[in-house]
From TrEMBL:
Statement: the UniProt record of this protein carries the keyword Cell membrane: no
Keywords, alphabetical: Luminescence, Oxidoreductase
Record-given protein name: NAD(P)H-flavin reductase
GO biological process, one term: bioluminescence
Source domain of life: Bacteria
Gene Ontology molecular function: oxidoreductase activity
Organism in which the protein naturally occurs: Bacterioplanes sanyensis
Keyword Oxidoreductase tagged: yes
Length: 261
């Protein structure tokens, strides 16, 4: 298995090879990384990493932060997966650079683990997992860890996107819902579109329709500050409170800095 880097509280830099860059949809890729030197990487489900790339050719590196999309894998403890949404010129450059490294001897620097919004709650409680867009990477990791620990855990997953083609993990989550009777999965398109037979609208409104109470529910959210704080506020009438919620937004965009919804 090799030596282990244990860093759930202290972040450690290591080098990784780019194993593959795989298209998940027209807009999103999955980047598969492998830690060098047979290192077994330790992190907790729901944490994120910092990827440093020399994109400008001047020797300076650009720090980039991505949720880790795969739960720790005891069969391949050096493997890491991230999702990148190709929604900007910078994202296009990042993806192009990583594609060029695929299969080469050149490596990238990764720092991990990072983030306090990892899975840390009692799995006897009901869990609500909420994602918008590529925030599904974190939720995928947490969901996989929950069912690996407790196959009977009550887990409700909601994933919102603007475009139907961005639901690139539909089959994976539907298979989870079939395999685990207490796990439900609800994809939500933000507005009505031709060919979409699923649910539509604001993510909090769909959740409102499905729950009478969220008082004892533990909630993990991944998305923009507006989505996270707006969802918490809108669902407060059902008993959802920030004290029972976990999100990276609480670290990088504390409540007083967020834009009101």
């Amino acid at each position: 298995m090799g030596r282990s880097i244990v860093g759930n509280e202290t972040s450690i830099a290591l080098t990784c090879s780019v194993v593959a860059v795989t298209d998940l949809s027209v807009n999103t890729v999955q980047v598969s990384l492998q830690a060098a030197d047979d290192v077994a990487v330790s992190y907790l489900a729901g944490q994120y990493l910092k990827l440093e790339l020399p994109l400008d050719g001047d020797g300076a590196v650009t720090p980039l932060f991505y949720s880790i999309a795969n739960r720790p894998n005891p069969m391949n403890p050096g493997s890491l997966e991230i999702f990148i949404y190709n929604g900007s010129e910078l994202a296009s450059r990042i993806i192009q650079y990583l594609r060029q490294l695929t299969g080469s001897h050149e490596q990238v620097t990764v720092t991990l683990p990072m983030g306090k919004a990892y899975l840390q709650t009692d799995l006897e409680k009901s869990h609500l997992l909420v994602a918008a867009g590529s925030g599904i990477a974190k939720i995928r990791c947490i969901a996989a860890e929950i069912v690996a620990r407790s196959s009977n855990a009550q887990v409700d997953i909601y994933w919102s996107n603007r475009l139907a083609e961005d639901f690139y993990l539909l089959d994976e989550f539907r298979q989870l819902a079939e395999q685990y009777p207490n796990l439900s999965f609800t994809p939500i398109l933000e507005s009505v579109a031709s060919g979409w037979a699923g649910r539509t609208g604001y993510i909090y409104r769909v959740i409102e329709q499905d729950f009478d109470s969220l008082h004892s529910t533990r909630t993990y959210l991944c998305g923009s500050p507006n989505m996270v704080y707006g969802t918490i506020d809108q669902l407060s009438m059902l008993g959802l409170s920030e004290d029972s919620c976990y999100s990276d937004v609480f670290e990088y965009a504390p409540r007083q800095q967020s834009v009101a919804v």
